[in-house]
Amino acid sequence: MIKRFSALLALVAIVISACSSGGGAATTGPTAAATSAPSAAATSAPSEAASQPAAAASLVIWADEKRAAAIKPLAQQWATDNGVTVTVEAITSDIQTKFKTASQGGTGPDIVVWAHDVIGDFVRNGAIDPIQMSDTSMFDPIAVKGMTFNGQLYGIPYSVENIALIRNTDLTTACPATMEELVKTGQQLITDGKASQIMALQVGQKGDAYHIYPLFTSGGGSYFATTATGDPDPKTVTVDSPESIAAGQKLYDLGEKGVGALKRSIDDKNSISTFSTAKTPFLVSGPWAIADITKAKVNYDICTIPPFADGQKASPFIGVNGFYLASKGKNKALAEEFLTTLVPTTEFQVGLYQAEPRRPAATAAVDQVKATDPNIPKFAAAGVNGTILPAIPEMGQVWGPFGNAEAAIVGGADPATALQAAAKAIRDGIAAMK
């Protein structure tokens, strides 16, 4: 099976090159020989479910287009080896809502693939089940943490990602130690006619609570208080705390009525291109930006997002992508076998890495790809002070209101007023969920 998977990686790369665009999402890094083989369960005789007629033993997997293209040939090999049928369907948009709706109607898949921040919402809606996997030591602990909710494992991780500061090495000589140093460098390059923007961090007209989080935390801000175990406490919204308002003031100072490092004209559609066309020396983005930067032949380095000189360490969100077991899937036992015996293998994780260069969740896969991809350890280093993106359902109430507050502050609105309005909207939204 290992030889078959190794041969498949070339096929996966060809399929992916036809469907990759180089762009990325927030929500949404992104060799030596493989150091681990599939588990004994993966290479043993087909399971009882797999020995049934193909019509009875079949799986349906939902993923977005890019991941579906990567999963399909790898899953097909597993299906062939086990005498079953696997259908991988590409869901082009709004997979979270479509999955919940289909689950309620009994027409959903057996497995769904998405980022970990949906887990709380899926559990609340009875859409996914815990996965029984006693040994998760092959994974980065942060990946397992992302897939764990209320003390139970709800997904098998395949990648870990975070944003970082990407700098143009032809315009800058080193990673800036502080945000003030970054601003000074950008201002000087503008004065010298070598740049037109201090940095590119997407804000847009509706804000972006994901990309701004490292700066907000460095300024002392937070979205929720934390419990004794360090988890976010949805009962205590802290967006309008004195510390968060102070952080809002720092965002104001970076905004359009301050030094102009943050601008609403920089959004998810042009932030990467602003950097790849050398209009700015700095970009705050993730692994999904690398393809466009490389295509533009911009020389770059990956740095930790710098903190404010008098602030705390900047803490980017850590995201984990994984495979989930549908509660109402038609073949749950077979689906769980797929999840626990195939997804953790080095071959499978490397295949998905080739779909988009985000750090694999399995450490053996990381060891394989980092030999030829120096960005993998650099993005990991930039996420050392990161915070696991909250998977609680209440987090869904934060994105819109806080984003609107951020955009208003960057545009020159009073930070306290904007954040107090956001906090009220968040609290009202959480109350409406009950």
In which range does the helix fraction lie? 40-55%
Number of helices: 17
- Number of domains as seen in the coordinates: 2
At the fourth level of CATH, the homologous superfamily of the largest domain is Periplasmic binding protein-like II
Radius of gyration from the alpha-carbon trace, in angstroms = 22 Å
DSSP, total strands: 15
What is the structure about, briefly put?
The protein is an alpha+beta fold and 434 residues long. It contains 17 helices and 15 strands.
Structure description:
The chain is α+β, with helices and mostly antiparallel strands and 434 residues long. It has 2 domains: 2-161 and 319-388, D-Maltodextrin-Binding Protein, domain 2 (3-Layer(aba) Sandwich); 164-315 and 398-433, Periplasmic binding protein-like II (D-Maltodextrin-Binding Protein, domain 2), CATH 3.40.190.10. Helices cover 40% and strands 15% of the residues. It contains 17 helices and 15 strands. It has helices at residues 2-19, 40-43, 65-82, 95-105, 119-124, 141-147, 179-191, 213-218, 242-254, 271-276, 290-295, 332-341, 346-355, 363-369, 375-382, 399-410, 415-433, and strands at 58-63, 85-90, 111-115, 128-129, 148-149, 152-153, 156-161, 164-168, 224-226, 232-237, 282-285, 300-303, 317-326, 359-360, 387-388. The strands form 4 sheets. Strands 1, 2, 3, 4, 7, 13, 14 and 15 form an 8-stranded mixed β-sheet that branches. Strands 11-8-12 form a 3-stranded antiparallel β-sheet. It has a two-stranded antiparallel sheet with strand order 5-6. α1 (2-19) runs parallel beside α13 (346-355). The longest helix has 19 residues, at 415-433. The radius of gyration is 22 Å and the shape is globular. The chain starts with a helix and ends with a helix. The relative contact order is 0.20. The model is unreliable at 1-56 (pLDDT under 50).
